[in-house]
Amino acid sequence: MRVLHLLLLALGLLLSQLGPGAGQLTALGQQSDSYICARKGGTCNLSPCPLYNRVEGTCYRGKAKCCIR
């Protein structure tokens, strides 16, 4: 009986370590906005877009602008 309790305790401690990383699993399969900007042929700028470029989205989690010609 004590062995069963020790096994359950070890299993509980092992599974409790998976909890904090579970939130990171939701980001799997999602591409960053910087990657999407580069794939469209744009550049990420913290300053305003250069002349004759337009803002097409964001980069760096919304901190910069994706500028496309």
Walk me through this protein's architecture.
Residues 33-67 form the Beta-defensin-like domain. This is Beta-defensin 1. Belongs to the beta-defensin family. Keywords: Antibiotic, Antimicrobial, Defensin, Disulfide bond, Secreted, Signal. The chain is built from 2 helices and 3 strands; from the N terminus they run H-H-E-E-E. It is of the alpha+beta class and 69 residues long. It has a 3-stranded antiparallel beta sheet, with helices on one face. The chain is rod-shaped and about 75 Å long.
- In the sheet with the most strands, the strands line up as 1-3-2
Radius of gyration: 23 Å
Task: Show unreliable segments.
Answer: none
Name of the CATH first level of one domain: Alpha Beta
What is the structural class? alpha+beta
Question: What's the helix count?
Answer: 2
Q: How much strand content do the residues show?
A: 15-25%
Write down the secondary-structure element order: HHEEE
Q: Would you identify the CATH H-level superfamily of one domain?
A: Antimicrobial Peptide, Beta-defensin 2, Chain A
Helix content: 25-40%
Quaternary state of this entry equals single chain
| CATH architecture assignment name of one domain | Roll
Annotation, overall tally of beta strands: 3
Shape: rod-shaped
